[in-house]
């Protein structure tokens, strides 16, 4: 599974292109025209870690150019239409028009042909936030739930602190070789230790 970050500047989210037998994009970012420059024509699927504007705004342009299908956890789908809960209001724009083809549930498997990703529902930053886990390589896409340096996602845009702490605790039970957050740098060293640090920090700072 070859993973490239094709986005991620300033407030924009990272967007990870997974170049497996089926090519998929994890999060899309804000600017479709820019992200498209780094995407293959045969992109098949865009998996969104949650409904926030900085992760989903580029989707309509990417879908128009590639015909890729779009997947998101079912609990975040209705929030796309809300300017507030999709965080579009923070960016001073309306919520993007996009259609979700595949509603996801906890424990679903996303098949990439020669590898697969397991959907782990990690509510807290948003109700339908997910992480994606490759059980063979132990790589984890964390969206805005866990970031480098022991940080974690804010819960003031329709999130829930208690749910976030539970989700972080669940992630500490996974064996993770590297994680790919929605913002900032990829963490390849001491990934388990940093996830634990995010959990401990969240517990200390939120309560
Ligand atoms: Zn974000
Ligand atoms: Zn977010």
Secondary structure: elements and pairs:
Layout: E1 2-5, E2 16-19, E3 23-26, H1 32-36, E4 43-48, H2 53-56, H3 59-66, E5 69-73, E6 102-104, E7 109-111, E8 116-121, E9 130-134, E10 139-143, H4 161-172, E11 178-181, H5 191-206
Parallel strand pairs: 3-4, 4-5, 5-6, 10-11
Antiparallel strand pairs: 1-2, 2-3, 7-8, 8-9, 9-10
Helix pairs in contact: 4-5
This protein binds zinc ion (2 copies).
GO molecular function: hydrolase activity; metal ion binding
Domain Metallo-beta-lactamase: 12-183
Protein name: MBL fold metallo-hydrolase
Defining key terms:
globular; 11 strands; alpha/beta; five-stranded mixed β-sheet; binds zinc ion; six-stranded mixed β-sheet; 207 residues; Metallo-beta-lactamase, Chain A
What would you say this structure looks like, in words?
The structure is a single chain. With 207 residues, the protein is α/β, with parallel strands linked by helices. The protein has one domain: 4-Layer Sandwich (Metallo-beta-lactamase, Chain A). The strands form two sheets. The chain has a six-stranded mixed sheet. Strands 7-8-9-10-11 form a five-stranded mixed sheet, with no helix packed on it. Helix 1 links the parallel strand 3 and strand 4. Helix 4 packs antiparallel against helix 5. The longest helix has 16 residues. It is globular. The mean pLDDT is 95. The site of one zinc ion (ZN) has 4 residues, from loops.
């Amino acid at each position: 599974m070859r993973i490239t970050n094709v986005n991620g500047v300033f407030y924009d989210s990272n967007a990870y292109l997974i170049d497996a037998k089926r090519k998929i994009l994890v999060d899309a970012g804000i600017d479709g025209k820019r992200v498209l420059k780094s995407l293959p024509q045969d992109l098949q699927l865009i998996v969104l870690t949650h409904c926030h504007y900085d992760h989903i705004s580029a989707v309509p342009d990417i879908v128009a150019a590639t015909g890729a299908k779009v997947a998101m956890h079912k609990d975040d789908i209705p929030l796309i239409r809300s300017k507030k809960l999709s965080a579009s209001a923070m960016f001073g724009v309306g919520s993007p028009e996009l259609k979700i083809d595949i509603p996801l549930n906890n424990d679903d498997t996303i098949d990439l042909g020669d590898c697969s990703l397991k959907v782990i529902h990690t509510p807290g930053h948003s109700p339908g936030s997910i992480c994606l886990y490759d059980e063979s390589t132990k790589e984890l896409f964390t969206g805005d739930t866990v970031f480098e340096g022991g940080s974690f996602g804010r819960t003031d845009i329709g999130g829930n602190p208690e749910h976030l702490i539970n989700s972080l605790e669940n992630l500490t039970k996974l064996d993770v070789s590297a994680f790919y957050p929605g913002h900032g740098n990829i963490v390849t060293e001491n990934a388990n230790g940093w996830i634990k640090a995010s959990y401990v920090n969240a517990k200390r700072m939120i309560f």
